[in-house]
Amino acid sequence: MLIGRKSFGQTADGMTVDQYTVKNQSGTTLKVMTYGASITALEAADKDGLTENIVLGFDSISDYEAHDAYFGATIGRVCNRIANGRFTLDGKSFRLATNNESSHLHGGVKGFDKAIWKADTVPGNYEAGIRFSYSSKDGEEGYPGNLDVTVLYTLNNDNDLRIEYTARTDAKTVVNLTNHVYWNLSGGRSKTIHDHLLHIDADQYLAVDQHSIPTLAKAVKGTAMDFTEAVPVGQRLADFGAEMNDPTGYDHCYVLRQAHGRLASVARVEDPASGRIMEVLTTEPGIQLYTGNFLDGSLASGGHTRYTALCLETQHFPDSPNRPDYPSVELGPGEQYQSKTIFRFRYRISKKLKRI
């Protein structure tokens, strides 16, 4: 396993941003940077041995700073949406920034995605990676408690990308972390993810209101939300537009079948043209499917247009701080937040599944 480091530039306020590279024996390469503890590239081989980058991103730190696509970023202190930017904890009300219409989104105006994280290398022969750490101060973006967070990215020689999150606090708070990486398994040869086959191991999803705040859990069976069998994303997008009378696309959280806290396979994506397959394993109770609905081809979107990638964000449910019926996102002193997600890459040749 090879680990390298280079400068990715400086932020507008003069902070140096480093990019780390982890490469395994088969040539699969992970690139991550200290700005937002973000994945900037994942280069993997296809069925013909061609190695390509299969995630979206920007080429410069100035673009990451200027735009809010959240490409590859660590999201926190609480990912997804909190209704009206408010929640109550032990009888005390907290007010957060409303940076997405009336909602608080992805940690606020300056969430974890915009922080400069400390990085340490984790060398190894079979598996190697980068451990990022960040101390979020009491009151940051309105959240209570000093929170110490680590995110460990590791890549092994079997082409598993593992993301492990831990956090500790000195006062009761709320925590819900994820990564916002955008995947296109074709490596850019296909301009959209319409032909990607998607399976999600969930019988229910969370219906949302006009502000994308969950209302109630609904069954996926017989609806445009059903990915219990592998289906081309483009086919389901057409179904979604007709059924929901909404041409936009998916931005919904699925209620996973697996028991919360136990690492299990929950989703699978396959690009038939390249043969690449990505399996998602997680300890989280939910997974947010987002089909890049708001990518518009502008500089703010890195030149990428709608449906050029999809996100599978493993997490607790949106608006959890306001929903006592959801799995809790509360964290107290003496407790440790833990979450693990694995993206497992393979390819298919002549109907036989091979490791990359």
Overall SS class? mainly beta
* C-alpha termini separation: 15 Å
Listing every helix as H and every strand as E from the N terminus to the C terminus, the arrangement reads: EEEEEHEEEEEEEEEEEEEEEHEEEEEEEE
Approximate strand percentage: 35-45%
Helix content: under 10%
CATH class reads Mainly Beta
Number of contiguous helices: 2
Described by the principal axes of the CA atoms, the overall outline is globular
Report on this model:
The protein has one domain: Beta-galactosidase, Chain A, domain 5. A hairpin with a 2-residue loop joins strand 8 and strand 9. The protein is built from two helices and 28 strands. With 356 residues, the protein is mainly beta.
Strand-helix topology:
Layout: E1 2-10, E2 16-23, E3 29-33, E4 38-45, E5 51-53, H1 61-66, E6 74-75, E7 81-82, E8 86-89, E9 92-95, E10 104-105, E11 118-122, E12 127-136, E13 147-156, E14 160-169, E15 173-174, E16 178-179, E17 197-200, E18 202-208, E19 214-219, E20 231-232, H2 233-244, E21 251-256, E22 264-270, E23 276-282, E24 286-290, E25 311-315, E26 330-331, E27 337-349, E28 352-355
Antiparallel strand pairs: 1-2, 2-3, 3-4, 4-5, 6-16, 7-10, 8-9, 11-12, 12-13, 13-14, 14-27, 15-26, 17-20, 17-22, 18-19, 18-21, 21-24, 22-23, 23-27, 24-25, 27-28
